[in-house]
Design brief:
- The chain is an alpha/beta fold.
- The protein has 2 domains: 195 residues, 3-Layer(aba) Sandwich (Beta-carbonic Anhydrase, Chain A), CATH 3.40.1050; 48 residues.
- The protein contains 11 helices and 5 strands, in the order αββαβααααββααααα.
- It has a 5-stranded mixed sheet with strand order 2-1-3-4-5, with helices on both faces.
- The longest helix is centred in the middle third of the chain and has 25 residues.
- The radius of gyration is 47 Å and the shape is elongated.
- It starts with a helix and ends in a 27-residue tail after the last helix.
- About 2% of the residues have low confidence.
């Protein structure tokens, strides 16, 4: 038997008149303290925490009008999360109550109450029901709040979120949302997600067999291509035949280097042979740029007519 199962059993027995009904908190040390969100109704002051049967030091009591939760990231959801993270809350209970005045108050009545307090309509939001979280069913309000809290990223999946209703006349509790069942459902869904993720990983396992050492890359090292090109050019220059030197110049002797003119001519020949486009570009004569035509001379007319001399 878990904590709230024992709480509901002891509460129902006590309401039925069993004098021996009660909770043994020491048996549930791992599930305490309890974080409870209730309404601000003053009639609840005499009911909590006795109606749950837990000691005061194990009861973290949060309250707002109508025990309303607006959204998963609201200030009250943040407070619930902090109560668990900082104060060590193990389980959350959102507890509505019968005869709730928030449920019974209409929009017009609410506007009249604000007007009596000096708050005019133009000072309030346009959608007053949404802003104050007005509701028409206490049970549905509790169910909605539990669903919002359960799906809040601020509340850890290990924290059960219960929904209860308490009768303000008798103190009897009714279990509206069983947090343990919801927790088991979410755990099952989480297991499905993990299983699906595991199958995806298994399908991708073949990629883990890939060994980067088996890849074959070109064995050329950085700069090696340039070095080989230089060696090739040196070899070709060494094989050049020495042409006769122009008249007036001494011919190179055997074993001497070819003249610069012959080397340049041979390099052009090799370039045209191996890289024709480059040879064509090099052999093509450079044409002079077109001349820009000069503008015609500007004739300045006399601003005043020249009168003949008398």
């Amino acid at each position: 038997m878990r904590l709230f199962e024992a709480i509901l059993e002891a509460n129902n027995r006590a309401v039925a008149g069993d004098p021996e009904a009660g909770l043994h908190p020491d048996d549930f040390a791992d599930e305490l303290p309890v974080v409870a969100l209730t309404c601000i109704d003053a009639r609840l002051n005499k009911l909590f925490p006795a109606v749950l049967g837990v000691p005061e030091e194990k009861f973290i009591w949060l309250r707002n009008s109508g025990n309303i939760i607006f959204d998963p990231m609201s200030s009250m959801t943040r407070t619930l999360a902090m109560a668990c993270a900082i104060k060590g809350g193990r389980e959350i209970a959102i507890i509505g109550h019968t005869d709730c005045l928030v449920c019974k108050t209409t929009t017009m009545q609410l506007l009249e109450r604000f007007k009596e307090l000096g708050v005019e309509r133009q000072m309030l939001p346009d959608n007053i029901n949404e802003f104050f979280g007005m509701f028409s069913s206490e049970r549905q309000n509790v169910i909605k709040a539990c669903d919002i809290v359960r799906h809040s990223p601020l509340i850890g999946p290990k924290v059960p979120v219960h929904g209860l209703m308490v009768d303000v006349q008798t103190g009897k509790l009714e279990w509206v949302v069983n947090g343990y069942q919801t927790f088991a459902t979410m755990s099952s869904q989480w297991n499905e997600v993990v299983k699906s993720a595991g199958e995806t990983v298994d399908k991708l396992k073949s990629l883990t067999d890939f060994n980067i050492g088996e890849m074959k890359f070109p064995e050329t090292k950085i700069g090696e291509t340039v070095t080989k090109a230089e060696d090739w050019l040196s070899q070709k220059i060494g094989q050049l035949e020495v042409k006769p030197a122009p008249s007036g110049m001494s011919s190179p002797t055997a074993g001497s280097s070819p003249s610069a003119i012959n080397i340049a001519e041979r390099i052009v020949d090799l370039a045209q042979k191996h890289w024709p486009k480059a040879g064509e570009a090099a052999a093509r004569p450079t044409q002079p740029p077109p001349k820009i035509p000069l503008p015609p001379p500007i004739r300045v007319k006399a601003m005043f007519p020249v009168r003949p001399k008398r």
